[in-house]
Amino acid sequence: MFLGLRSSERKRKRERKPRAPKETLRHVKSREQRKRGVDVHGPATVYAQVVGAGSRDNGASLYVFSEFNRYLFNCGEGTQRLMQEHKLKAARLDNIFLTRMSWENVGGLSGMILTLKDTGVPEVVLSGPPQLEKYVNAIRVFSGPLEEIKLAVRPYTEKQYTDDTMTVSQIPIFGEEDGPKCSPNSGRSSPSSSPQRRELWRPEDSEDTTTRDPSLVVAFICKLHPKKGNFLVAQAKNLGLPVGTAAIGPLIAALKDGKSVTYEGREIHPEEVCTPTDPGPAFIVVECPSEEFVQPICIDQQLSRYQRGGTEDPAALVVHMSPESVLKTDEYKQWMERFPSTTEHLILNEQVCTVHNVRSHKIQTQLNLIHPEIFPELQHYTTKAALHVPNVRAECLLKFQLRPKIEWQSATQSVLLDCGEGTFGQLCRHYGDSVDETLAKISTVFISHMHADHHTGLLSLLFQRERALATLGKAFSPIYLIAPVQMMTWLNQYHDHCEEILSHVNIVPSKVMCEGAEVSKFKTKAFIQALLKKSDLAKFQTCPVRHCKNAFACSITHQSGWQLVFSGDTMPCDALAHMGKNATLLIHEATLEDGLEDEAVEKRHSTTSQAIGIGMKMNAEFIMLNHFSQRYAKIPLFSEDFNDRVGISFDHMRVSEWCTLVHLLIPPLKALFAEEIGEMEERRGRRELKQMKEAIAESNEEQRTPNEGETGKGAKREPEEPTQDVGSKRLKTN
Predict the structure, then answer these.
(1) Alpha-carbon distance 319 to 348, whole Å?
(2) DSSP secondary structure code for residue 49 in this structure
(3) Which residues pair with 563 in a beta bridge?
(4) pLDDT in tens, 365-408
(5) Where are the beta strands (DSSP E) in 467-596?
């Protein structure tokens, strides 16, 4: 019976229908349509993004995006997993460029090819050293025939490759024969510099077919295609062109091609109705694995064409996949300096400080809260280095925009909410040696109001940020300062009489960020758009709150959807509840404990329950209380309104996606600070007893006071005021 089952199973397998071919991917269809089209021009958006920053655990790899194509430069171990975790889609990846045949560069290639095959990518072209063809054949030993995907190798001898996005030139770099040939990461001598060894499994009489060539590195020069200027509809209408009709099509095509047209007897020039053509920037990817390659790179004529005084426009970006030992050589530094100051240098090597596998760290951190010994915290290898040539150290997902505007787009820009006295000192204590990197990432500062404990740390922060940028070799840029307009009065006076400071800030008045506010100044509009883009924000909104004059709260909405609301100092405020409707996180001041409502009104602050009430009213997912009075030295008193959506903040506290776990800390916090809580409750008890006695005394006093007009027995008679003439009154008031 068992054999019969096996036989029938084999029969069913033979009768099974063949798998239907995968549907052609949409981007492949679009590419074919573009080839058939007449008006072919460069893409509107292109950027380069770091996948692996070059650390010991994640080799250097760079992802280049355009709406037409996707590219990958080097594919070390874990690259495919990183792209999947960070949602860098591999489905449109059809070109992989390899700078060198080393495991650091090709270790993840097999997994990437299998992923592309399963995704339905029809063809992938590998460019670089000619040994890539042998490597692909070696992959087939364990991956199978790979019949569903076409793998092609474009060796460096095929100088140029062109597609819809750019032209890529391969530049072979051959290391000098003198000197040790060494792997920069391992320190091991390469086979070419050690005695020839014969592998144990190979027969002695077999033919040696080795094609290893460790002296070869391939650099890549990538030049984006020109992009025609945009047609300006409003200007065209003003000039009388037939916008909105069928006749406008040929006119637009001619004007965007740089040709003048005549319409109804009037000659229209391209510059009148079109933005200038973008000629297309160039970027260079170069690996210099050891010092034997330094001189060949520095004297290469094709690379020098994109330096200062070269025959081409200078490169917008140079990506250096080179160890620190190379970067510190005088010859290599001089080569970097031959590029103009407009060229950005991105360095990918072991001297980086970044976390690649964020998901693993998040999960492990959560598990660590359950049992720190079973689930130990993850570590990451970091080292530091300094280079006097201005440069940017790679971080995972760091993005450099090549079009429409050449600029860095860091995924780690920071917004600072209020900046009281001592803020920089707190940053030093929190971040230690990495405080400069933290300061460099601050792009926006929000000042809620003009009380000293909320803004007098700003100047120190600005000066220290300038120093940090210089230390890191980064270009200086002012921060975006969202603050009451009175802030400019203070800054202007300090600037005029003390030190230069105004160049450090781009001011955006808080009132123009309110809902429905009109922004009349073009510069302010530009600042708002820039600060949103720089921090990946979809919205930044403010609203007036009930504290002092010109006090504001703010709401920050990220492009990914989360919303953070910051109250600043305020009494309970309906406008704040409205602005923060359904917020992800509300950070609300809770200066005073319950029972001190009168004092809260007098000082225009909130009590604990009032702050929680605002959070419930806006339906915030989580409420974090802060700004406790200095009378609570270590911990505030908890109210009965605390629930699993409420937490309290501490200095140096770090909260992210798992802020909903914070309420679980309240029982251990109560145990940790039991003595302090006991003392505060005792003081509260004495205060409540005193208030009770005062209330009883006041009630008794009211009962003893006779009604108006009564002169009964025992009633006190009001003393008569002495009569004064008008003259004496005037004398007293003078």
Answers:
(1) 7
(2) E
(3) 557
(4) 878 888 888 888 887 666 656 666 777 888 888 888 888 878 77
(5) 479-483, 505-509, 537-544, 552-558, 563-566, 585-589
| Helix, coil or strand: residue 74 | coil
Cβ-defined contacts of 640-649 (< 8 Å, 24+): 640/594, 640/609, 641/608, 641/609, 641/612, 641/613, 642/608, 642/612, 642/666, 645/615, 645/620, 645/621, 646/612, 646/615, 646/622, 647/622, 647/623, 648/624, 649/587, 649/624, 649/625
The rounded distance, in Å, linking the Cα atoms of 82 and 97 is 18
Convert the pLDDT of each residue in 307-341 to its tens digit.
999 999 999 999 999 999 999 999 999 999 999 98
**pLDDT confidence bin for 201, thresholds 50/70/90:** very low
> Strands 537-544 and 552-558: what pairing?
antiparallel
In angstroms, the CA 532 to CA 556 distance is: 10
Between 42 and 564, the more confident residue is 564
* pTM for the whole structure: 0.60
Instruction: Identify the CA nearest to 391 among candidates 463, 318, 323, 330.
Output: 318
Closest CA to 529 of 519, 543, 544: 519
What six digits make up the tokens of 351? Answer: 């001297």
In contact, 390 and 31? CB cutoff 8 Å: no
- Residue 311 vs residues 56, 71, 315: alpha-carbon distances, Å: 38, 27, 11
CB atoms within 10 A of CB 555: 22
**295-309 pLDDT per residue, tens:** 999 999 999 999 999
Dig out the tokens for 495 from the structure: 């600037």
